Amino acid sequence: MAGRGRGLPGAPARIRAARRRLLPIAGAMTMAGRSRDPLRTLAELERQLEALERGGVRWLNVAPDPQAAPAGSATAGVTVPAAAPAPDARAAPPAPAAAGAAAATGAAAAGGADDERPHPSALATLDALRGAFAECRACKLCEGRRQVVFGVGHPRPRLLFVGEGPGADEDAQGEPFVGRAGALLTGLIRALGLVRDDVYITNVVKCRPPGNRTPEPGEVASCRPILQRQIELLDPRLIVCLGNVPLKVLKPEAAGITRERGVLFTYQRWSVLPTFHPSYLLRNPAAIEACWKDFRTALQLGYLRT
Ligand code: URA
After folding, report:
1. pLDDT tens digit string along 244-279?
2. Is the CB of 53 within 6 Å of ligand 1?
3. Which of 96, 103, 192, 230 is spaced 20 to 30 A from 24 at the CA atom?
């Protein structure tokens, strides 16, 4: 366990500064049923590291990036849960959907009549879609954003995670779910035996709502054709709605995430699993068990099989 290399210096202050690396490990342990509370697990990991430091250990091998560490490897004295089946190697580009067939469900489609941008449904690749909306000004969220946070991941994923909207970290880095909630989501993905590159992660709205407020209906409607086209181009085996906002987009009649979580439904031709948003799980760690149960259902039904 101890050794030089990509190391974590042992001083307690540095250990505490490494919380972001440790949280996915704590999340993964929780998902795998090895603990019940990721924040308590995190505190225990910190305590273990401090004890090692007091015992003279100066360096620990810690994966530089949580998703880069192979599942089942020992990290900071903790064994990360064993991997589920190996990730799917599908990489074929998605077949372009028929023009006009997509995005019919958005109210105010981004790229309206007075807008030069093509409608998302006419764009045949994710890159074209990303490029066309990189400077989008279809709603007022453009005023406070640093950049459009389009989405990242596998072009033909088994899982498509859809969150609510970028927060401050995501706005700064241009990637969804890179803050604390993202660390928990990464832990969840790892507990499923996958890494972030195996899945695709995006949000209902692509620009940060000020103060991280819930996106307004008009903002959701503006972005909706982009999400629709992402779904068509990615053609995931399973869409995972993280919380109420994406749930209500794909199932407007839904009662709410507490009632609907874990109950698979069909949106157009895609299966959808609603579950709690990682930010909710951070505030209510007891709900992580329920969330993991939702994913076990998806595992048992074969959605993650290679
Ligand atoms: N919460 C979200 O819904 N999305 C992000 O990208 C980050 C936090």
Report:
1. 999 999 999 999 999 999 999 999 999 999 999 999
2. no
3. 230
